[in-house]
Amino acid sequence: MKKVLFLSLVCILNCEGKMSQRQAPHNDAFIARRQGMVEQQIVARGVTDGRIIAAMRSLPREKFVPSDYADRAYEDYPLPIGHNQTISQPYIVAYMTEILQLDGSEKVLEIGTGSGYQAAVLGECAKTVYSMEIVTPLCIKARELLAELGYQNVHVRCGDGYAGWPEEAPFDAIIVTAAPTEVPQTLVEQLANNGRMVLPVGKFIQNLLLIGKDANGLVSKEKLIAVRFVPMTGGE
Ligand code: SAH
What CATH number did the domain enclosing 137 receive? Predict the structure, then answer.
C-alpha cells in the first residue's frame, strides 16, 4: 500500500504535461529541492508559462551538472560544466524560454547546447529542437544525456553555431546561450517570419536582446535585461 501511494505521488510530481517524452527520474532525492527552486526562483519571480514550470518541476537538473556539483544543481546561480563553460542559472533558462512565447508547435534552434538542460526545457515546450555546441565533448555528452532521458525531438549537432543549421531553417524561434559581440546575421536570416530570437550581445557588458521578425520579414530589436554569459566563440 505504502509503495503504491509513493509511486502515485512521484507521478503527480513528474507526469504532468508532455512528460511522457522522457523517463521519470528514479531514486529522486532531489524532488524537494527541485520544487523549491521552481517556487522560489521561477514562479515567485513572475514566470507564468505552465509548460516551462512543468518542465522545470520535472527535469532532473542534477544530471546535467558534473556529479561533484549535483548537490548545488538547484541553487540560484550558474555552475561549471567543464571546458570553461557553465550551465545557466535556472531563472535565466526560464526567462529566456518565456520570451520565445512557445505554444508547442515550433521548430527551435539553440546555439550553445552546453549541458543540454536548456535544450531539454525547449524540448518540453516546443515541437522540435535543433541545438548546436562547438565544444565536441560537451556536445556528445549532452546528446547522450538527452537520448537517455528520452528526448527524441531534440537534435544536437557538434559545430559552430555562427553557421546556424541551414538544412532545417527557417526556425520559429532561436535562442543563443553564449554571447556574441554582434547579432549574427546568419541566424537572423534563419529566423522565420513571425519568429522570435533571444540572445545576449556584448563583451563585458552584455544585454539580452529580443529580435523579432514580422509577417513581412521586417526585423525589430528590443533590449531586455543586463546579463552575463560565456562568450560565443568560433568564426564570425
Ligand atoms: N544552454 C546551456 C548553457 C550553455 S553555456 C545549458 O543549458 O547548459 C554556452 C555554451 O555555448 C557553451 O557550452 C559553449 O561551448 C557554447 N558555444 C560558444 N560558442 C559557440 C558557437 N559558436 N557555436 C556553438 N556553441 C557555442
Answer: 3.40.50.150
Q: What is the pLDDT of residues 143-165, one digit of tens each?
A: 999 999 999 999 999 999 999 99
Instruction: Return phi, psi of residue 193, to 5°.
Output: -60, 145
Is the Cβ–Cβ distance between 124 and 143 less than 8 Å? no
Residue 154 lies in a domain: yes
The band of 115, judged by pLDDT with boundaries at 50, 70 and 90, is: very high
CA of 160 to the centre of ligand 1 (A): 10
Q: How far apart are alpha carbons 127 and 133 in whole angstroms?
A: 20
| Distances, alpha carbon 63 to alpha carbons 3, 16, 18, 126, 209, in Å | 25, 20, 20, 22, 29
Question: Which residues span the domain enclosing 90?
Answer: 4-228
In a domain, 233, yes or no: no
Q: How far is CA 104 from CA 43, 61, 81, 154, in A?
A: 20, 21, 29, 13
Does the Cβ of 85 fall within 6 Å of ligand 1?
Answer: yes
Q: Is 123 in the pocket of ligand 1 (CB under 6 A)?
A: no
Does 132 contact ligand 1 (Cβ within 6 A)? yes
Q: What is the mean pLDDT of the chain?
A: 91
pLDDT tens, 75-99? 999 999 999 999 999 999 999 999 9
Question: pTM above the 0.70 mark?
Answer: yes
